[in-house]
Predict the 3D structure of the following.
Amino acid sequence: MTIASILGAIVIGAVIGVLGRLLLPGRQPIGWILTIVVGIVAALIGTAIAQSVGVATTDGIDWIELLLQVVLAVIGVGAVAALRGRTRV
């Protein structure tokens, strides 16, 4: 794993996390760092799922994989926001 791949994962995770947060209606009581972490995790899990079901990797944008990642980010941001919302008094 190189520095470029780590930075790429952070950037892609940030974009996926922000897209997930923007698509989730309402206000989420989580910070941007946690949104980026959720996005990175969603990107990794989405890629693993896409590869396991046979989605082909192309030279361009893999739309099915991207859609999986964003849906997982929406679910992840919602879950983290719900957990954070319950712990606050």
About this structure: Helices lie at 3-23, 32-52, 63-87. The radius of gyration is 14 Å. The mean pLDDT is 86. The longest helix spans residues 63-87.
